[in-house]
Write a structure and sequence with these properties.
The protein is an alpha/beta fold. The chain has 4 domains: about 100 residues, Orthogonal Bundle (Fumarate Reductase Iron-sulfur Protein, Chain B, domain 2); about 40 residues, no CATH class; about 120 residues, Rossmann fold (3-Layer(aba) Sandwich); about 120 residues, Rossmann fold. It is built from 24 helices and 8 strands. It has a 4-stranded parallel sheet. The chain has a 4-stranded parallel sheet with strand order 6-5-7-8, with helices on both faces. Helix 1 crosses helix 6, helix 3 packs across helix 6 and helix 11 packs across helix 24. It is globular and about 65 Å long. It starts with 14 loop residues before the first helix and ends with a helix.
């Protein structure tokens, strides 16, 4: 596609990225075949190619309306289209910018503005979310059915390892996972402790910025990114070389810090360093599979399921382009791991999407669970807190993080 930018947009810091991304699109339509919202709605403007046309027309001076806003809102940002695209169109980056452009020009109804503000200011603040989750659990019997399913019972985190080790890595703890699923971080620390690695937490680090970024609060997101860099940097200077991330939604955001902060001379170099240090837990543990195999075979605990189905999060397989290591690692440890039909498609969680687009989200959840349950799993495992919570809201089959399974095995 060729694009002719109007003067209104020419001085925007992101317009160069918009032009480069749009120019790569050859409008072949391969992306529509793997777009979940296009599959459900069948509308060209609810697929990546149609949305790219809308964003192209906007920066060329076409009127921007609430209809444009609605089509961009319905995008999951699952980035399945990026995995399919033969031209390397970076659609996820484009739609984030496009949403900001639209929101700056189309005033949302008051109810939407309040809803989005509440999500930004509660979900991205760890202490606030923890408090509200506690209130929600107390009032759970009185809540609507859809919300009740999302507020699951509290779980124990178990013990955090007390040993210190020479080898240290930073563990990113996000905004909702510590309160919603505290055992995921603790299980990660216990597994790494068994491998002689100490996971360190920077107490001042906070939400990765993804929630605000995807809700068009780019300034707020960048402020959170900078605070995280400031919190991690003393550890970097002391020799820590890796940031472990066990929520793939956070991982894909942190790996994008370099690009998002490239325009900031005070943080660009640090952001690039942090982005290179960021590793999903599935990128690290396969290097230790021989040690894990020995521990799993000699100290295997009871209650390990025979049939496990793995749901690969979109932010891992499409956002970070990581496919295969989780099922490969579990397989070497003696777990029979299955993938369901259409495992490349989104479950409908997508961060705040399940709350902002409940009908579409539930439709996608139903399709995903139908395929998952056909594999007759005793347990479903995934690698992202949002996917786990969303899937568990629709089934009685236990849904957990795969690191918890390894923790139990060793």
């Amino acid at each position: 596609m060729q694009i002719n930018i109007t003067p209104e947009f020419r001085n925007d810091p992101d317009i160069g990225a918009v032009k480069d991304i749009v120019n790569k699109c050859v409008h072949c339509g391969f992306c529509t075949a793997t777009c979940p919202t296009y599959q459900v709605l069948g509308d060209e403007l609810d697929g990546p190619r149609g949305r790219i046309y809308l964003m192209k027309q906007m920066v060329e001076g076409a009127p921007v309306t609430a209809k444009t806003q609605s089509h961009l809102d319905r995008c999951l940002t699952c980035r399945n289209c990026e995995s399919t695209c033969p031209s390397g169109v970076r659609y996820g980056r484009l739609v984030d910018i496009g949403r900001r452009y639209v929101d700056e020009r189309v005033v949302r109804p008051l109810s939407q503005r309040v809803e989005r503000w509440l999500m930004r200011e509660t979900l991205s603040r760890r202490q606030v979310f923890s408090f509200l989750l506690g209130v929600g659990r107390t009032l759970r019997p009185l809540l609507p059915a859809t919300l009740k399913k999302k507020i699951q019972s509290a779980q124990s985190a178990g013990k955090w390892p007390a040993a210190t080790h020479k080898t240290k890595m930073l563990l990113h703890v996000g905004c909702v996972q510590p309160a919603l699923m505290p055992n995921v971080d603790a299980a990660t620390a216990r597994v790494f402790d068994k491998l002689g690695i100490e996971l360190v937490i920077a107490s001042d680090a906070e939400c990765c910025g993804a929630i605000r970024q995807h809700l068009s609060d780019h300034h707020g997101a960048e402020a959170q990114m900078k605070r995280n860099i400031d919190a991690w940097w003393p550890h970097v200077e002391n020799g820590v070389e890796t940031i472990i991330i066990n929520a793939s939604g956070c991982g894909v955001m942190i790996k994008d810090y370099a690009e998002v902060l490239a325009h900031d001379p005070s943080y660009a170099a640090k952001a690039e360093r942090i982005a290179k240090m960021a590793k999903d837990v599935s990128e690290i543990l396969p290097s230790y599979q021989a040690d894990l195999h020995l521990m799993a075979t000699t100290k295997r605990a009871g209650g390990i399921p025979e049939r496990v189905t793995y749901h690969p999060p979109c932010t891992l397989q499409h956002g970070q382009k990581i496919r295969g290591p989780v099922e490969g690692l579990l397989g070497t440890l003696g777990v029979s791991v299955r993938l369901c039909q259409d495992s490349h498609l989104c479950c409908g969680s997508a961060g705040t999407y399940s709350m902002l687009q409940p009908a579409l989200s539930q439709e996608l959840l139903g399709r995903k669970l139908t395929n998952l349950l056909k594999t007759e799993p005793q347990e479903i495992v995934s690698g992202n807190v949002g996917c786990i919570n969303h899937l568990q809201s629709g089934t009685d089959v236990p849904v957990r993080h795969w690191i918890e399974l390894i923790d139990r095995m060793i």
